[in-house]
Amino acid sequence: MPPPLTFRPLTEADFPLMHTWLTRPHVAEWWQPTPTLDELRDEYLPCLAEAGTLPLDAPGGAIPYLACEDGKPFAYIQAYRVMASQADGWWLDETDPCALGIDQFIADADRIGKGLGTRMIRAFLHFLFADPRVTKVQTDPDPTNGRAVACCRKAGFRDVAVVETPDGPLLLMTIHRGA
């Protein structure tokens, strides 16, 4: 049986590791543009104040986590209140105040395609749905990222539609409580 997966809030000490991960070709292909370490610090430092807060209780941006296997970080995953992202032009049609969104990537290319992403997303969904207020979770991979789309489908997400976003076309996928 594989070891359990856990999630711990990203810390400032993790920024160099996160930066290294973001520069890896299999990550940089989908997380563009690759930030400098200073840009990463500027973007994520404000999010750290909400670390340990439930996503529905966080007033602003994403809550960043590292996914760990046997205590060792292997991936990045974040959760955010969907309606909180509307100020930046995202998900303007969302009216559910208890909807969350997630984004994620696996750090090591040699760990992709082995079911780890599906395990991670399922475990994170379990973590998020532990908050009884959460009604649904959405994700939005690039529709041409076949591995990410397949992984999200295996984790239980259902396709909604390809939608235009500030980052271009993305495949909106959702999973509802109890699904």
TrEMBL record:
Keyword Chaperone: no
Domain (N-acetyltransferase): residue spans on this chain: 5-178
Key words of the record: Acyltransferase, Antibiotic resistance, Transferase
Gene3D superfamilies listed in its UniProt record: 3.40.630.30
InterPro entries found in the cross-reference section: Acyl_CoA_acyltransferase (IPR016181), Acyltransferase_MbtK/IucB-like (IPR019432), GNAT_dom (IPR000182)
Transmembrane helix is among the record's keywords: no
SMART domains reported in the protein's UniProt record: AlcB
GO molecular function, one term: N-acyltransferase activity
EC number of this enzyme: 2.3.1.-
Protein name (record): GNAT family N-acetyltransferase
Pathway where this protein functions: Siderophore biosynthesis
Xref: SUPFAM superfamilies: Acyl-CoA N-acyltransferases (Nat) (SSF55729)
Top enzyme category: transferase
Biological source species: Polyangium jinanense
Gene Ontology annotations of biological process type: response to antibiotic; siderophore biosynthetic process
